[in-house]
Design brief:
By secondary structure, this protein is of the alpha+beta class. Helix content is about 30%, strand content about 25%. Strands 4-5-6-7-14-11-10-9 form an eight-stranded antiparallel β-sheet. Strands 1, 2, 3, 8, 12 and 13 form a six-stranded antiparallel β-sheet that branches. Strands 15-34-35-39-36-37 form a six-stranded mixed β-sheet. A hairpin with a 2-residue loop joins β32 and β33. α10 packs antiparallel against α11 and α15 runs antiparallel to α18. GO terms for molecular function: carbohydrate binding; glycosyltransferase activity.
């Protein structure tokens, strides 16, 4: 849990760029020291930093010593490795030392826990341990530090290490010959370990530091004995490489667009799993919590690569549903304290994601999994939310019944016959639109329609005619009500306030048009065809800013009008949801154009969305300012920061971008034991290849196009034999197969 049990300090400070971790190389003869990474003690020459899947490497050369520092986390244990390889290029022997430092938190905030942290040395192996017996979440856990070298000194005293008024750039410990070996209670706590290194002329050494957490001192001793040596460090890195190679190698594409290949062949899935599902943390937000709607959407992108993770997430989320059908908006593991709200879309993502999982994998058994509900105080009508730790109810039901309860909870309509918006419907910043219980959401109506239509398919499989009839009838009612009450004349409105004032209307001074009401009129396949196309034309006219290469969520932004939609109005106009590009929704826009058959515009927007293209030159990266190989949550649309990216890594845009790329544009759709291909590719693509692994069987698929690049598949051959259908049968025979797909 990256929030409730932080091991080291989270510094949300992009200006000073501080850290709670440091490593130093010191020349024992001259006293000069530097870091093998650019901070905290920058050396005299440059650094090379390489990020891979599950690891990062820093390379540096200083005073005749080259260093390569690799950091990663074991796949099978809560152990972080910092492995430093030193090479002596000077013409003489060198006496060096390596010092590793960690600032300890062992809780949420350092200032609230530092007085409770106690450090000690293990007499068996010399490891340094720390524990916080008063920790709210993990008071029983032990944090450990160890090195592969037998000779070492340690300290648990941060004040001693840094020095009075000192900094990590010039830590006092680096001006002394050794650490003090002081541990115990009452210190400003840290974990630091120093070891001497002797390098002959031309010699090379590899030194391992491990940092991690265990359930007890005995377990910590087992971890340090096992991992704090070079052989196990190499095995752990091999395990990291093997996991990501297999996971990210499930689908490997070769297209004429190298920027697409970079994202599709690794970074989008890596971002989704590592940051969204596992870490639930990023530089801009160290939340540690599961979001009900958030990780369900992430999991839908993992159907091809790691369906097991998607299945786990469905069960995990269903366990956070109350008996009444609503859910926790987010919650913290391991005990489940979180927020209960009136947000109206959260619970609907459970049936939505369940339908996708079952229809793609054929795993109907998950529908019968028994899952307990939660019990907690119901929200009062005037409450927006409350934070609590609910209890597990004695009542349980199948996942199927959990989904039914969620759908029925969503079928609460207002005076316009549209779903009640509550305290937000996807855009949490619109928390005041329906906070009195009467506001209605147009977008939620589209989403609910598609939910009902898809779930009717599952209900038919189970022979549940009552639910089939409910879903079909309610979908028709909602569709009629949208066309009757939500059309604004040139596009669909976004919502209605509690008092009946429309939002997303030409009559509004601000937020005259919002993209998601338009895109989901297409994505739900429920919008009137002529109106939906007109609505998307309005999106293209008013929200696609080709000059700035971004796609706005809404326009004009909220600022000075009498409209009070909620905290979205607190954002600077043109930033984040308030009129900037909110990438999550921008991807839906591109999906909608593709689904309409407008491939030219869909690919134009895809290229706008691709972060690689925002970092393709020195000028563009100076404007974009964030990592150009992962998705960012938003792009600013306000001067003087137009085109600047914000909030990278921890964003659901990664999963949706993967689905846009692989499923919508390249056209791969998993249907249990078949793969349907419906490409929507640019006209100048003559062919592209997809290497698709189904379990232990590999399919090499070549899609042949012509100058028109039609989406219609006219012929498929499997190992030279023509198939009688437009789908590729998937077999688990542990062989390799060649597939050719021909477009007219």
């Amino acid at each position: 849990n990256a929030h409730e049990f932080r091991l080291t300090t989270w510094h949300n400070d992009p200006l000073s760029d501080s850290s709670g971790e440091a490593l130093y190389i010191r020349d024992e003869d001259t006293g000069a020291f530097w870091s093998p990474s650019p901070l905290p003690a920058r050396g005299q020459s440059g650094y090379v930093c390489r990020h891979g899947f599950g690891y990062t490497i820093f390379e540096h050369y200083e005073s005749g010593i080259s260093s390569e520092m690799t950091t990663y986390v074991a796949m099978d244990a809560p152990v972080k490795f910092v492995v430093v390889k030193l090479h002596n290029h000077s013409k003489r022997p060198r006496r060096l030392s390596l010092t590793a430092y960690w600032e300890l938190v062992l809780g949420e905030w350092r200032h609230a826990n530092m007085m409770h942290i106690v450090t000690e040395s293990d007499p068996h192996n010399g490891a340094l341990y720390a524990h916080n017996d008063y920790g709210r979440e993990c008071g029983h856990r032990v944090v450990f530090v160890q090195t592969s070298e037998r000779e070492r000194t340690i300290t648990g005293n941060r004040s001693e290490f840094i020095g009075r008024n000192g900094t990590l750039a010039k830590a006092a410990a680096l001006y002394r010959s050794r650490l003090s070996d002081k541990t115990g209670a009452g210190f400003d706590p840290c974990a630091a370990i120093q070891t001497p290194i002797h390098l002959a002329e031309g010699a090379e050494r590899e030194i391992v530091f491990v940092f991690g957490t265990a359930a007890s001192t005995d377990e910590a001793q087992q971890y340090t004995d096992r991992f704090a040596n070079r052989e196990y460090a190499r095995q752990a890195l091999a395990g990291v490489r093997e996991y990501w190679s297999r996971t990210l190698g499930t689908i490997y594409v070769e297209t004429p667009d190298p920027a697409l290949n970079v994202l599709a062949n690794g970074w989008l899935v890596y971002q989704t799993i590592s940051s969204r599902l596992w870490g639930r943390s990023g530089y801009y937000q160290s939340g540690g919590a599961y979001g009900f709607r958030d990780q369900l959407q992430d999991s839908m992108a993992l159907i091809h690569t790691t369906p097991g993770l998607a299945r786990e997430q469905l069960i995990r989320c269903a366990e956070r549903q109350f008996c009444q059908g609503d859910v926790q908006h987010w919650w913290h593991p391991p005990h489940g304290q979180g927020v209960r709200t009136h947000i109206s879309d959260d619970y609907l993502w459970l049936p939505y994601a369940t339908c996708r999982f079952v229809m793609a994998t054929g795993d109907t058994g998950i529908l019968d999994e028994p899952i307990h509900f939660l019990e907690g105080r119901e929200l009062n009508s005037e409450e927006e939310s409350y934070y609590d730790q609910p209890q597990r109810s004695a009542e349980s039901a199948s996942l199927y019944d959990h989904c039914v309860r969620a759908l029925k909870n969503g079928l609460r309509l207002g005076v316009h016959g549209l779903p009640l918006m509550g305290s937000g419907d996807w855009n949490d910043g619109m928390n005041l639109v329906g906070h009195e219980g009467r506001g209605e959401s147009v977008w939620l109506a589209w989403f609910l329609i598609q939910n009902l239509q898809q779930f009717a398919g599952l209900a038919r499989i189970r022979g549940d005619s009552t639910i089939v009839d409910l879903c079909v009838q309610q979908a028709v009612v909602l569709q009629e009500n949208i066309e009757k009450n939500a059309w604004d004349g040139a596009w669909y409105r976004r919502a209605y306030f509690d008092d009946g004032t429309p939002l997303g209307s030409a009559t509004n001074d601000e937020c005259q048009i919002d993209s998601i009401s338009q895109s989901w009129s297409i994505l739900s396949s429920a919008g009137d065809p002529l109106r939906a196309r007109q609505a998307m034309a309005a999106v293209d006219k008013y929200l696609v800013r080709r000059d700035a290469q971004l796609i706005q969520l809404l326009n004009p932004p909220f600022d000075r009008s009498a409209l009070e939609p909620g905290y979205i109005k607190g954002y600077v106009p043109g930033v984040r949801e308030n009129g900037g590009q909110y990438t999550h929704a921008a991807i839906w826009t591109a999906m909608a154009f593709a689904q309409m058959g407008d491939k030219v515009r869909a690919w134009e927007l895809f290229n706008m969305l691709n972060p690689v293209r925002h970092g393709s030159s020195a000028e563009s990266i100076a404007r974009y300012k964030v990592e150009p190989y992962v998705m960012c949550a938003d792009i600013y649309g306000a001067a003087p920061h137009v085109g600047r990216g914000g909030w990278t890594w921890y964003t659901g845009a990664a999963g949706w971008m993967y689905r846009l790329t692989i499923e919508t544009l390249l056209g791969l759709s998993l249907e249990v034991d078949h793969l349907r291909i419906t490409p929507r590719v640019p006209a100048d693509w003559k062919f592209y290849k997809v290497h698709y692994r189904y379990r232990d069987t590999l399919y090499h698929i070549t899609v042949h196009g012509d100058s028109t690049a039609s989406t219609r598949v006219v012929r498929i051959t499997l190992d030279g034999a023509e198939l009688p259908q437009d789908r590729i049968p998937l077999m688990d025979d542990r062989r390799e197969h060649d597939v050719d797909v021909y477009l007219d």
